[in-house]
Amino acid sequence: MSEQIEKIQKLIKTATNPKQKAMYQDLLAKLQSELSENAESTEPPQEQIQPSLIPKPKRTSSSSPVSPPKPLSVKPSKIKKVETISPTNRQEKLTPETVNEDLKSEPESSDHQEVKDTDAQTETEQSESGESQRYFQGIGIISGVVTLTEERSTVMLGDKEYRLFYIPNRRRKAYDALKKEIETTGNTTQKLIVYPKILHFPSRDQPHQVAFQLVGFVGHGASSSPLNTELNDFEFKFSGLWQFIPVCRTPCITVMRNFSQDRLAWIKEAEAAKKVKFMKASHVPLLWRDSPVKPFRFNPRLEKDQQGQTYFVQVKAKFLPGRDVFGFVEQLNEPTEEAPGFLKASKKLKAEALRETKERKQQKQVEVKENVTPQSESSDS
């Protein structure tokens, strides 16, 4: 019987199915109970001790928080969620990997635009509804003199002019509505709801550039909403990873692309270059001297498990025109080590996207040469 117990104990250690593990544990408890009963019949002096020992195996198999199926059935779902946001695990298990918000300009394809606009609208609605749920975001209100043209739109904040752009399709409606508001009222000074777009350069000595993506505006007859009542002019709500990035001397809040099944489905079908562009993160420089947690700084000399902790923070900050940075105003929630699910492009995917871009450029150059050659031949004749 002792050999059977050893075999069952080995099966418990190697079992991966919660139900099988529970079954083996129940069987082990029965065998241990039978073994103790046999010991009682052969060793009378231990009769008073054995009954108190018999229930222990049963208690561990039925009431342990580790062995029952319910806790084990919950753990895999948590692991899956973490794997989708973990850069290393996601690179191995998700072929589309991940993709973040573009900092430069509009998306390239109409399908990409539809996905991006829908997601942006969802995030805006979440912000305006006043929900306190945790997700990545960067949205705020600015007020300045607006100049709208088809070639280039701008907004004057203080003494500096900033580029103002919109995403085609859905965000075109916001642009047209703003244009009509200015034509109707004759007032070019408008209060705009925007996403900040920060463009960093490879050299740390080259200053970053700030632009704003138009989401909406607060017209003269607009009713109050949680967003425009919570935020004053030039104030923003940021939720992201508090860290240093190699190309910026100021610590940043990194706003990642929030994870959703719709986005993941689109990523699986998109080209590598579009995936990377879609998943690009926004790194917002923030002046926060007395932050309760230190911004993460990667140390190449340390192993991965020796690196510091990256925190997810939620703050209100004010844009400082001219300085092109944001200043801390208040903390909206306590920093946490756990971040919401997000998408991020792997190094492998970025390399594939770079290769696709180079091939596309080479193909265009070949097409240009082919078009130029026949024209030159016809002119010679």
Automatic annotation (TrEMBL):
Domain of life of the source: Bacteria
Organism: Lyngbya aestuarii BL J
Protein name: Uncharacterized protein
Region (Disordered): 35-133, 354-381
Extent of Polar residues compositional bias: 35-51
Biased composition (Basic and acidic residues): 90-119, 354-370
Organism ancestry: Bacteria, Bacillati, Cyanobacteriota, Cyanophyceae, Oscillatoriophycideae
